[in-house]
Design goal:
The structure is a homodimer of 189-residue chains.
Chain A: H1 2-11, E1 13-14, E2 20-21, E3 29-30, H2 32-45, E4 53-57, H3 62-72, E5 76-82, E6 91-98, E7 103-110, E8 119-127, H4 131-143, E9 146-156, H5 161-167, E10 172-182, E11 185-188
Parallel strand pairs in A: 4-5, 4-8, 8-9, 9-10
Antiparallel strand pairs in A: 1-2, 5-7, 6-7, 10-11
């Protein structure tokens, strides 16, 4: 999506060979209009897939997921991150390792909001190693529901996440795909 | 706002004399259309106040704040919650005590996204003891910007937050004001 690529070029900050900061419009400060356009783009790409629910993860996935939910007229559920595995009986949980933070978190979703037989669109802000998306997909599997696809705002195509998700049989739709970072510059795939 | 009150009556669960769970449309599962209507209502109430930025707090405040930001055409910044006070030089921080969780968190905002001379609308999902709103207002004060008002989705008017904010001189606009919980029933103010 050109609008997103333009913003990444204008405002993204390449911190090292794998970290891109886009906290001026996505991860800390949020541009509501860009979220709306991106949410509508996800809705367009999945409009014939019978999506009944969107699943995302706190906090940066929420804004774009809610805009996609508005366009598709479906509810959005956000998984919560927890440090410990202590979950109550009423939640589904999956383990997610963060390479950036070098720590394991658990993500949880109340069973009540993820019943069986839903057709779930997973949305997240970044795809790098695929840990978060695989964790969300694991929760959908535990619930007995179906992942119809995974919508990603920014895919770092040089990291293994996209291949892992494809190998697991998931359809991935990314709004911007980054091939590499070179000399603090972003090269799109 | 009647639409919100109807949802609270239909889906809110009163857990004890002070806790109301509305996680089917606000705090865990999110109803995007309701968020849009509420965001537009905040925009209407503050449309002549020259708002230049919205400040909220992760995670439940983000959806409605982004809808308000879309309607007012201003960026949204969400404060991050942290367990420790270890902040870097580039952030503003304030201490927030959670009575529900009986723990102190620190909320932080990158200085870069909260410059001076902004006219800031604070938005949050709940107002109970006022700790979160006061922490957000403290960050705006540190930045040398102005709080033009505080928009709250659900105010528990029987708890001291609203009075604390009024005493501190802040204008509070709540979409639903709850006077009390009685026999698992919500009484609006």
């Amino acid at each position: 999506m050109q609008l997103l690529k333009d913003r990444i070029i204008a405002e993204g900050r390449v911190l090292n060979s794998s970290i891109l900061k886009v906290d001026s419009f996505l991860n800390h400060q949020i541009d509501p209009f860009l979220m709306k356009v991106m949410g509508e783009e996800f809705a367009k790409r999945f409009k014939t897939d019978g999506v009944t629910k969107i699943l995302t993860i706190e906090a940066s996935g929420i804004a774009v997921a809610v805009m996609a939910g508005l366009a598709l007229n479906v509810p959005v559920v956000f998984a919560r991150k927890k440090k410990s595995s202590a979950t109550v009986e009423e939640t589904y949980a999956a383990k997610v390792y963060s390479f950036t933070k070098a720590e394991t978190n658990y993500i949880t979703v109340a069973k009540h909001f993820m019943p069986s037989n839903e057709r779930v669109l997973i949305i997240d802000d970044f795809l790098a190693n695929g840990e978060a998306a695989l964790g969300l997909a694991e929760i959908v599997r535990q619930a007995g529901s179906t992942v119809v696809g995974i919508g990603i705002v920014i895919e770092k195509a040089f990291q293994p996440g996209a291949k892992k998700l494809a190998d697991a049989g998931y359809r991935v739709e990314s709004l911007a795909r980054i091939a590499s970072f070179e000399n603090n510059k972003v090269n799109f795939a």
